[in-house]
Design brief:
The complex is a heterodimer.
Chain A lengths: L4 E3 L2 E4 L5 E6 L6 E7 L6 E7 L2 E4 L8 E4 L6 E5 L8 E8 L10 E2 L3 E5 L1
Parallel strand pairs in A: 2-11
Antiparallel strand pairs in A: 1-3, 3-8, 4-5, 4-9, 5-6, 7-8, 9-10, 9-11
Chain B lengths: L1 E4 L4 E5 L4 E3 L2 E4 L3 E8 L5 E7 L5 E3 L5 E5 L4 E6 L8 E9 L8 E2 L3 E6 L1
Parallel strand pairs in B: 2-12
Antiparallel strand pairs in B: 1-4, 3-9, 5-6, 5-10, 7-8, 8-9, 10-11, 10-12
The chains are: A mainly beta, B mainly beta.
Chain lengths: 116, 115
């Protein structure tokens, strides 16, 4: 079956540009997560959605980062006025249920963002 | 607060040799522990998870891990490495309390398998 998909897979932006990264979770999955993975590091939590509600955005590094999931399925992570330190792989994950710590999160392939 | 330390950013083993990837965790509450594998240009795939049911956990592709509370460790092992095991491996921790959906990852260990 279809897994989590993300687009674009690669994005190059000039410093100061706005970017939008898309995530298509597994159909029917209630929970959706965004993670940021810098080069040589493990993924770091950014934000969590339960259906269309953004329940936790504690990991977003600045107010330039904004995420939405308006209909409870597809999600978009938007970064305004990109800076070089935003260069990373952005991973999306989804989970079937309202997530507790034990539930498996299914990850997409990620979007590699390079800010020049 | 919780954290994960993976010892060794890069491990090389010969094909057929034992694979041992180390993970130590810190958690103020009973943890759930996970090992994920990441192949180039692919997403993270769950290998196995510990949820307090049994301390020795068997996963996919012949991997297993043992939860040792006294050592705060959750090392990943495989008796005989295969070329297809070459990938990056991440240990992660969550818990059963508030905010438990947040996975905290280690920095990863890149496994190379030498023919």
């Amino acid at each position: 079956g279809a897994g989590v998909s993300q687009s674009p897979r690669y994005k190059v932006a000039k410093r100061g540009q706005d970017v939008a990264l898309r995530c298509d979770p597994i159909s029917g999955h209630v929970s959706l997560f965004w993670y940021q993975q810098a080069l040589g590091q493990g993924p770091e939590f950014l934000t969590y959605f339960q259906n269309e509600a953004q329940l936790d955005k504690s990991g977003l590094p600045s107010d330039r980062f904004f995420a939405e999931r308006p209909e409870g399925s597809v999600s978009t992570l938007k970064i305004q006025r990109t800076q070089q330190e935003d260069s990373a792989v952005y991973l999306c994950a989804s989970s079937l249920k309202v997530t507790s710590g034990v539930d498996e999160q299914f990850f997409g392939p990620g979007t590699r963002l390079t800010v020049l | 607060a919780q954290s994960v330390t993976q010892l060794g950013s890069h491990v090389s083993v010969s094909e057929g040799a034992l694979v041992l990837l180390r993970c130590n965790y810190s958690s103020s509450v009973p943890p759930y522990l996970f090992w994920y594998v990441q192949y180039p240009n692919q997403g993270l795939q769950l290998l196995l998870k510990y949820t307090s049911a049994a301390t020795l956990v068997k996963g996919i592709n012949g991997f297993e891990a043992e939860f040792k509370k006294s050592e705060t460790s959750f090392h990943l092992t495989k008796p005989s490495a295969h070329m297809s095991d070459a990938a990056e491996y991440f240990c992660a921790v969550s818990h059963s309390g508030a905010g438990s959906y947040q996975l905290t990852f280690g920095k990863g260990t890149k496994l190379s398998v030498i023919p």
